[in-house]
Amino acid sequence: MPFETNVFINCPFDDDFAPLLQAILFCVITMGFEPRLATERSESGETRLDKIRELIEISKYSIHDLSRCQARRKGEMFRLNMPFELGIDWGCRQFAGGEATAKRILILEEKPYRFQAALSDISGCDIETHGGQYDKAMTKVRNWLRHQTGVDAAGPQRMIGDYVTFQEWDYERKLAQGYSEDDIRAYPTFERLEAIKLWVSLGKPL
């Protein structure tokens, strides 16, 4: 996919964040863009950092969610991967030259102002918050992509409704394919990504 339509997504990949990630993927795909994630391919001879660097380089747009910068439980370490990848992306835009100077970045957080304690250097940047709610995350991404690209897009409420329609369609499809309820609840994100693309290619069936 070309630089102009690639969207690098840097976010938590845990089960709690999966509903937000899957909603963001739906938004990106249905708006005509290609999401790029570090988990999209597995190659034993390739380091994760090299893969991330490549995906950042080939993506004009990037979404960085910093919702896991704070530990949730006593003794748990907060995660630095997301702000680290944001730093790589910012550096690419500043120093790589060429088409990289046109890169655009969206920073998301679950709660307002919390990032300032962990990453005060980005104080003054526009940070969008979603409260851990998938529909708000989808709306923030939709509005940002619409503003940055001018691409025609359904309104936020219509897009959320389409996502519900897709989920119902995919649920019935998976049951027919022999998936159990537990299988569907544990549905891997990469399979959800494939299903979204299939749904769009079939004309968004009801």
Characterise this structure.
The structure is a single chain. This protein has 206 residues and is an alpha/beta fold. A 5-stranded parallel β-sheet has the order 2-1-3-4-5, with helices on both faces. 31% of the residues are buried. α1 links the parallel β1 and β2. It is built from 8 helices and 5 strands, in the order βαβαβαβαβαααα. It has a single domain (3-153), classed as Rossmann fold. The model has no long low-confidence stretch (mean pLDDT 88).
User: Which overall shape is indicated by the principal axes computed on the Cα atoms?
Assistant: globular
The count of β-strands is 5
The portion of residues forming beta strands comes to 5-15%
Number of helices: 8
Proportion in helices: 40-55%
CATH architecture grouping: 3-Layer(aba) Sandwich
**What is the topology, as strand order, of the major beta sheet?**
2-1-3-4-5
The CA-CA distance between the termini, in Å, is: 28 Å
What is the total number of structural domains? Answer: 1
Element pattern in H and E: EHEHEHEHEHHHH
> CATH fold name, please?
Rossmann fold
Largest sheet: 5 strands, parallel
- The multimeric state of the shown protein is single chain
- The Cα radius of gyration reads 17 Å
**Name of the CATH class:** Alpha Beta
Low-confidence stretches: none
The secondary structure category is alpha/beta
Mean pLDDT: 88
